[in-house]
Every structure is written in C-alpha cells, then in structure tokens.
From TrEMBL:
Keywords: Oxidoreductase. Signal peptide: none annotated. This is Oxidoreductase. It comes from Agromyces mediolanus (Corynebacterium mediolanum). GO terms for molecular function: oxidoreductase activity. PANTHER family: NAD(P)H NITROREDUCTASE YDGI-RELATED, NADH DEHYDROGENASE_NAD(P)H NITROREDUCTASE XCC3605-RELATED.
Amino acid sequence: MTLVTDLTSRKAATEAPLIDPLAERWSPRAFDPEAVVESEQLRTILEAARWAPSANNSQPWRFIVARRGTAAFASLHGAMAGFNKEWADSAAVLIVNIAETVDAEGRPRPWARYDLGQAVAHLTVQAQHEGLHTHQMGGFDAQAIHEAFGLDERHEVVSITTIGALGDVDRLSDVLREREVAPRQRKPLADFVTVGE
C-alpha cells in the first residue's frame, strides 16, 4: 500500500467530474489545535445546512454548536468513545447533529434522519468550500449528550461533526496516522448503481 505524504490536497480520482468541494472533501483526524473558525464562517456553514431540502419543508434538524475551549465542547468530548476521544479535541468546533423524529403535535417524522443527513451534507460541502475540513463521528454516548443539553425523547442524536483546519499528522497515534495517510478508496459506480431500461 502506498501511503500519501502530502495531505494538503487529497483530491479524489473520480469517474466523472465533480465540483472541487466534493472532489477535495475527505475526513481528517489531524486538526490544528490552535486554528479558529471565525463566527461569520461558521454562520455560513450553518446557513448551508438551513437550506437543505426536507420532507414537507419540515426542517427536522437541530444542531448544538460547541467551540473548542468551552464547557459545551468539553462535555461533548467527554461523551465520545474510543479513538474519537483521542483526536477530536483538536478540532475547532464540534456540532451535534440531531433529528427531531416527532413533531410538536406528536406525529412521527419518518424522514427526519434522512433530512438531517442532507443538512449535514450541505454543511460539510460548504465547510470544504470555506477551506475547512470536517469529520463525521458515530462513536459517542447519546444518553450523556441528551442529559448534558436537556434534550427530550423527540430528539435523536445521530452524529457529531468536527470542523477545523488541517493539523500535524505526526501528532496522531501510529494506528490513526496509518488511517490518515492511507489512499482514498471508493467502490466503482457499477457496484451500487442500477440503471433501469
């Protein structure tokens, strides 16, 4: 396996041309622990999520935004599991991605998770366009997050997004560094696309 040494550009070898923020997006673990995401930049990233499509325009996404150095950030970092806890404290921002699975009248929102996923994808692409990087995480204690932020049963913590600037890969453990510099790979389109005739 050939390892990548220049992590500043890991543009994907796509089968069709993509816009740069999609082709250049990847999920680093080495974030710069001194970098700051400016307020206007963060607002723009969240605005991209705001304009994602959703079923019946229900917009069932909710976000908890925590900057490095705050009590909220420390609480989220404490709720992380395994490897995530090892590296995520260097990110500039943590965003908890929450699906409102039941509306205010008690009616189920069956597409809430899907809609949240679209909002997070929009957020991710906008962050890449802004010159930042993101990494999505699923390893965390959802109940601890519920308790820390007073969430009710209508709200499901689905994932956490880290946002920041690239950092020094040599600060990672050997296991994480190996993952960080490994070549990017995707299945070919033919493996998962069926075109009806």
